[in-house]
Each structure stands twice: as C-alpha cells, then as structure tokens.
Amino acid sequence: MQSNVLRRVVVHDRFQLELKLGYPLKQGAQTRYRIETYLFAPQSLGINAANYPEHEFFRDIQHYVRMKTPSFKLHEVLESPHSPLVRSEALMREHVGALTPEAEDALRDRLRILRAVFKSAAQNYLAPLAHIPTPMTPEAENQFIDLVSTAIDYIDQLTRRYRALFPQLIAARATPDLLRAFRLTDESISILIEDLLLRVHQIAHAWLSPPLLAKWQAVLVARVRVEIEYRTARHYPSVLQKGTRESYMRRVSALKKFTSSVLWLSTSTRREGTTLEQVLFAIAAGVSMMFATLIAFYAQAAYEEFTLPVFIALVVGYMFKDRIKETGRSFSSRLLDQRLYDYRTIIETQDGRRQLGYVREKATYLAWSAIPPEVIAARGAGIHDDPMFAGNRETVLLYAKLVTLRKDAFDFLSKDGVNITTINDIMRFDVRPFLRKMDDPYEDRLMLKGDKVRIVRCHRTYHLNLISVFAGETGSQTCERTLIVLDREGIQRIEQFDAEGRPFTLRSSRLPLQLSEFADGEEE
Predict the structure, then answer these.
(1) What is the distance between the alpha carbons of residues 497 and 382, in angstroms, rounded to a whole number?
(2) What is the per-residue pLDDT across 220-269, written as a single tens digit (0 to 9) for each?
(3) Whole-structure pTM value
(4) Minimal CA–CA distance to 36: which of 482, 476, 471, 473?
(5) Same domain for 166 and 295?
(6) Which of 96, 120, 141, 397 is least surrounded, with the fewest CB atoms within 10 Å of its CB?
(7) DSSP letter assigned to residue 272
(8) Domain co-membership, 292 together with 439
C-alpha cells in the first residue's frame, strides 16, 4: 500500500543525510500523520543512551518547513492565468498610475514565487536529458534539439516579459523596496538560466554527434553569454570570474534564500509538558514535605521535648523526605515520557499572523523486545544483513513525529492564485557522531588469484538502517527501509527498499555535476 506521506532520502553532503517528508493537505479542519523512524546502528559504533543521549540526537538534526512549490509546466509559466508572471502583468495593468501598498505586497511575493516556479518547471522540462541514450541515435539527437530549442524559446519569452515590468514599476512609482525585490529576483533568475544551460552544454556530447555537437554547444554558449553581459550591464555583482569565486558563491546563496523565503514557513520549538512537569515535581516535593512534617510532629508529641530520639526522628524524616521527593520526580519523568513528546514545533506564516499546524517529536532508545514485529521484518528483508546475525547486535533509536496541519489556514493563499497542496518538512541529520569509533576505511588483505598471492585493498564500511513507518488518519500503515553505507570519511551511498526488501530507488552519494540539477524539480 502506498503511503500518503511523500518521502525522499538523499545525501546532502559527505556528513549530512537529508530526509524530506511531504504532508499532503486534506479537506477538513485537520490533517494528521504519524511517522516513526527506527534507526538501527551497530553496537561497535558506541551509539547508546550513555554515549549518545537523546538530547544530542536533537542537536544533530536541523529542520526546515516550507510550502511545496506550486506546480506549473514550463509553458504554463508563460500562459496560465494562475502563473505568478501572468498575474504580475495583470496587476501592473490594473495599477498604471500608482501602486497601492497592498498591490506592492502582492507583487513582491509574486515576483519571488516566479523564480521558484520557473526553476521547478525548467528542471522538470529538462529532466529527460538526465537519461543518457545508449546508443546515440538520430531520434535521440532530434529529441535533444527539440527539447533544448523549445526551452531556450521559453526562457527568452520569460526574461523579455519579466524585464519589461521594470519600466512599468518606475512609471507606477514603485517604492525602493519593491524595486530592490525586482532586481534581486531578476539577478537570481539570470544566474539560474546560466547554470541550467551550462549543465545542458556539459551533457550535450552524450546526445549529439560531433557536427551537431559543435553547433548546439555554440548556441548554448551564446545564450549564456547574453545573461552574463546582461548582469554586467545591470551592475549585478554575480559574474563568476577568477577573482570573484568566493563572493560569487556567497551572492548566489543569498539570492536563493531571498527568493525562496516566500515559500518558507516560520517555526518555533519548545519542550513539551514543561508546566505539567513542574506541577508533578511540586506535588512530589509536597508529599515528601508532608511525610517529614508528620514524623516531626509525631516525635515531638511522643517525647515532648528536644531529645536524642527526637533528633534521630527528624534526621530519618529528612532522609526519607529527600528520597520520596526524588522518587516522585523520577516517577513523574517516566510518566511524562510515556504520555508526552519531547518537543512541539509550531508552524506559522512568516508574519506570525496564522498558525498552520504543529509537529510533535520524540526520541528514545528501545529494547529489542519493544520493537514492533513489522519493523523487525522490514529490517531483515532484502539482500543486506541477516537479522539473526546483525539484529541483536544493534542499538535501536526511535524518532517519532506526530504532524497536525490545519487545511483552512492555507485558504488565504488561494485568493492570490497560489494552490498549496503539500507542506514539505526537510530534516538534515548529521552522522558525524556515528563515525568517531569507526576503523580505517581501507585495509590491505591477501588474496589468492590463480596460483599467485596478491595484496588487495578492501573497503571497510558500516551500515545504518532506517525503517520508516507511516500512519495516516485512515489507519493505513506502510514501512520503508533505507540503508546508509558509511565509512570513517562519511556517507558513501544510500539504498532504499520497500517492506518486502525490494529496492525501489538507488541514490549514489553525489550525482555528477552536470546531471544533479535535473535530478529533482523541487526548489531548495
């Protein structure tokens, strides 16, 4: 059964794993999902409650919550009445004389959303180029030419129409803040076009024979040069040269954050149940004080004056008072751990005016006997690691999330033509604590090859297994397994399996540079 939660696991860099969960929004007051991730780690890595407590796990994860980029095909970015470009042009026609503050706010958001929409649409349109044809055929060459020529035509139309808005903004007496937003988005779109076309240039040799290859690489170079010259003429400080590599990367990162921030949501995280915890601790202290006071009253009533027996009774009463208080605190903590989650994250719009939902999180170590049978079965399925051999030698950490989203909170966005159907929860997990006790990644071994003994270098790796269990409001439940292959130098690769152990996707640690841009049509 397919899970309603959209899940993607990729390698963000050598030491960070990125887990993206997409929560589809359903009609009704609330949408609820429960996601439980069981992390199986070899005991030799020293991952346990003493060496790697739960609060350190939360320190090593980082969360981002954003609205999924509205889905448009590349031609729809130019034609659809809901496209940010089309709606921006319509708004400018409605405010020829002067822009109202409300119109400026709407236009500022539409301009920035346009960059995200265009990137997603362009990546999806160019995605077939990532599937290199073998062997090269005339049909493949025609496919490449049609795809690239059409993409360049769409790009030309978009840049011409977008940049035509600038004189209209000047005529409408746009504020400096809006003009700045236009220029920054303009610069970001130009960099995006340059990067996409350069990546197409890099893989053109796999699609085209030498005569066509030279022609179309020249076409791509000429179109890229147009963008470079445009940014130079506009005095945009984002032209990549020998002496600007550091400033270029900083500028590109800042532009990406500025334009994509319109889709990001604000979050605030706090520990759950702190008030209840203090109330229970106060009750435990009160009970212990009551016991000590009763002992003191009884001793004074029995012996009437301060004598040695009274002194001993008071000391004993204080001793039991202290133990009763600590026992009550321990019992209260265990009770709260069973009933509550560790953290609650509130999801809001960036202006803080609308609360969109919340996420509850909890991390705890489990004994092997406490793991559900379906999780153990999913752990043992597939071609890697016999569970009878590896299972009881692994430490299991459970990371649970309970997600509650308010569908009606996103209705305000539809008034501006933005259809939000999914919320993306992006979590980055730093695996460096798992690398500390690993052995050297390579070891020389002797091998018999024919009649000769050879020395060969073997790669020593360690396996982490993530079993994700998804449960929706209907009671449906699915399991997926992700195998993370590590060595002391970091993440080497990941492999994914369904509950029966069948591989359904295989992602290497890093795609080649020229292909990685087309691997995922979702904005960062």
Answers:
(1) 7
(2) 999 999 999 999 999 998 888 887 888 888 888 888 888 887 787 777 77
(3) 0.72
(4) 471
(5) no
(6) 96
(7) T
(8) no
